[in-house]
Amino acid sequence: MCAPPRLALSGRPRRYRLADRQRNARRPRRVGADMTVELGRIGVWRRRDQLTPRLAKELEALGYGAIWIGGSPPGDLFLAQELLDATTHLAVATGIVNMWATPATEVAASYHRIAAAHPGRFLLGVGIGHPEATAEYRSPYDTIVDYLDVLDAEGVPVEDRVLAALGPKVLALAAERTAGAHPYLTTPAHTRTAREVLGDGPLLAPEQKVVVGTDPDAARALGRPAVDRPYLHLRNYTANLRRLGWSEADLADGGSDALIDALVVHGDAATVAAGLRAHLDAGADHVCLQPLTAPNTDPLPDLQALATALHLQPGAPR
């Protein structure tokens, strides 16, 4: 059997990449304050198949600061460009481009194309993905470092990229080599810990799932499947939840009610808004809310209600 393909990164000999890392460690840290992209305090995270230019226009008009493209968008990033073309000041970020699916050289070329057309409005989020989904998965940390090395070589600015990060080692790397961290499937308790690891300055932009509705059973019926499959079957996420103190019983059978309630904030718009502000109070700079609704249900009414509860300013640059 042929050996699995290695991730396409760089033609430089490994000894030079190691030397580069040593030099990088001595550089002054670039922080989120250096970012050219203004995200505002609240953004919306949606899977790429749920995003359209029309929705982008509506979110901009409501006062949301950014759209995060989830679901591992392809490296051509054509959707990001379409969303930016349709709006005037809304920021667009990827949450995230999977390092295993897209060579760093390809995503760098896409970044430069978009940044030239829409300067100061595109944030490149990249991440390592999951061992369960990638046959050729190798050392996650080394792969991330190699990928960032190539983005450096291809001229992608540190201040215009963020890293998916959960554990302390990758959070520290995010602070050192990017504008900051984009944690997914977390709680305000994780946000507080992440801020301690990142220190002051680097961007911290966690994702938070939400259900607008006052029936707890109905909210959990929407939230549990979104948490269970695939995340409670991916060790990156389960390891992080264990670090936060959740037990094996909490992780079993689709997640305990307490776990689901923590990972999927639910209630009326004011209650959900308070749950989002809890991340900001814990040290986040920006929160990406992911609205969960019944199949074939328009999320816009919930997003309108949340914009009002969050006191977003319609149509204003964020």
Structural description of this entry:
- The chain has helices at residues 14-26, 53-62, 78-85, 104-117, 140-153, 168-177, 188-198, 216-228, 235-243, 248-251, 257-263, 269-281, 300-309; strands at 42-47, 66-70, 91-94, 97-98, 122-127, 161-163, 180-181, 203-204, 207-212, 264-267, 287-291.
- With 318 residues, the protein is α/β, with parallel strands linked by helices.
- It has one domain: Luciferase-like domain (TIM Barrel), CATH 3.20.20.30.
- α4 (104-117) links the parallel β4 and β5 (122-127).
- Residues 1-31 have low confidence and may be disordered.
Overall average residue pLDDT: 89
What is the tally of helical segments?
13
Element string (H = helix, E = strand) = HEHEHEEHEHEHEHEEHHHHEHEH
As for the number of domains, it is 1
Kindly provide the radius of gyration, computed on alpha-carbon positions and rounded to a whole number of angstroms: 19 Å
Low-pLDDT stretches: 1-31
Give the N-to-C terminal Cα separation: 53 Å
**What percentage of the residues does DSSP assign to strands (E)?**
5-15%
At CATH level 3, the topology is TIM Barrel
Helix-and-strand structural type: alpha/beta
Helix content: 40-55%
Which key phrases capture this entry?
318 residues, alpha/beta, TIM Barrel, nine-stranded parallel β-sheet, two-stranded parallel sheet, 13 helices, 11 strands, globular, disordered N terminus
Quick structural overview:
The chain is of the alpha/beta class. Helix content is 43%, strand content 14%.
